[in-house]
Amino acid sequence: MVETINVDYLARVEGEGALTIRFKGDQVEDVKLRIFEPPRFFEGFLRGRSQEEAPDLTARICGICPVAYQMSACHAIEDALDLRVDDTLRRLRRLLYCGEWIESHCLHMFLLHAPDFLGYQDAISMAKSHGSLVKRGLRMKKAGNAIVRIVGGREVHPINVRLGGFYRAPSVKELESLIPELSWACEAALETVRDFSTFDFPAFERDYEFVALQHPEEYPFCEGRIVSNKGLDIPINAYDDHFEEQQVPHSTALHSIIRNRSEYFCGPLARFNLNYDKLSTAARHAAESARFSVPCLNPFKSLLARAVEVVQTFDEALSIIQSYTPPEQAYMEVSKKPATGFGCTEAPRGILYHRYRLDAEGLIQDAQIIPPTSQNQKSIETDLYAIAPQLAAMPHDDATWLAEQTVRNYDPCISCSTHFLKLKVERS
Amino acid sequence: MQARGLPTLAVWKFASCDGCQLSLLDCEDELLAVASEIRIAQFMEASRAQIEGPFDLSLVEGSITTPQDVERIQKVRQQSKVVISIGACATSGGIQALRNFRDVGEFMSIVYANVAYIDTLATSTAISDHIQVDFELRGCPVDKRQLLEVINAYLNGRKPNIASHSVCVECKLRGTVCVMVAQGIACLGPITQAGCGALCPAYDRGCYGCFGPQDTCNTDSLARTWLSKGKKPVEVEHVFHSFNAALEPFSSAGEKYG
Question: Which fold has domain A42-387?
Fold first, then answer.
């Protein structure tokens, strides 16, 4: 009988977290996902900085998904300034975001999550018996990184993103250099969905509230309404009215909930469930042939949702490149005025919300940043409560591993999640 | 995980964005080759397997910002033959060292409703402020080719071949026309250490200092040039006080114009 499951330092996640599940008899008594990642106070030092710096400064919140921070920052500030970038720039942004989803998803699928399903400590030991799978994953990841490098300048903390667009638009030749590898990757991505669909997924379902962006024509990246499968349907600027953050003693990351309801689930599985009809034909076929259909309530199948999104993003990247004509100007002129703006984009791990209040000089007066991992934190803990009866009946090492795998379903990025703004200061 | 007799590598994380250790996983072509030459003893971002120390080589990412981490970094040093700090957080305190110039209590109350749960230091400091470090690899993030070079050098007992000249030299080497001279764009390249390959000027943008100050750089002269090109003092302050804000002479230069 398992009494306590303790994981002092969660592996194969980005950042520092720990997990404790305490049982009394076969009843679970307490679950704590403890985040001890030290806070870095981004919202604090953003105050007084120039609006132009926001994309570069907030990128440093996360080395895995810097583009998401850059996109949410740009969209929020452009919203304040009533600026909309033209269609070519918009498509270039989508292309850059495709690159980040691919590299982030491939990192998680092949190097961090697949070892759980195949029973290895890590991808390097897994490569001994599954060499072709790991090598394919690394090559797909590299193809995603190549997009970020060419459009963004470098893989981690891209240098080419600015308010209003880019510092320099890539040439047709630069983008065309990506085509051969992306064409290979489209096939490799389909093969990956097939391979992953043969994995043994633990039988586990929960009645989730999935939350994602929804756009009338596209699989969501940077724009749309925030919707859920339980009736939420709001514009981005109503985020604060519908969501709230709660501080808990055991975590330096705040917990998010939907007001007057409870926890929710964002990320690839939420997007897949809420935007299935916006997937490309190839991505939908891949899901169908893997018998992966909506609604899917099994969080372990987030792996499949990521794999389908990788098909989707390789497809879209290739199609953007094939129809690319460089914009006349790499960026639109950016004004300054006192205003508040809201941005929410789909980071690889789910919705990433930014809000900025700006002054007439273009300086940031106030910033709020709510990353996906903090939003998923309460859902992760609730999953652990729900799966605990299964854990209680397992040998200790197996139970510990399955508990970790349950956390890794969310691809938590703990470095991101530790720095939020709570507007009301309540000192006790 | 690997055969005995291979040198052991440990990767440690302190306050950071994970981007520098990710650079190791971003070496897609080299990752499996590197893993066959070393024994990965600790790399929590990549593996749940952990092997006890001592370690031949420790890579340290992140800065020191909590009382617990002040203790933890000492243990890393005690267990490691060679310690290399990687990235701006580890070599300068990183972007989070902006707290060093302000009141951290004010920052905390902006972010957290109840500061009683939060245990943090008033400063964010470099690893070398706490322990003897064998080599510091700059960058926000580090350059992955430089990272491979440093690992390779230490595993083979030689000095890493890492340039200490400025970004300006890199622009000349890659044939980029000077953005400051030709386009009047404010650029930190003349006083920033090389390492990125002069990326920003190649994208029609001025360098913004990811690799920190180059040795013996003249911040005043560059600041005067920036001011003459219409930059405001606060903008000059911000450019010095970014990812390497706590490193001299960027630290004092930022305060001078702030």
Answer: Cytochrome-c3 Hydrogenase; chain B (1.10.645)
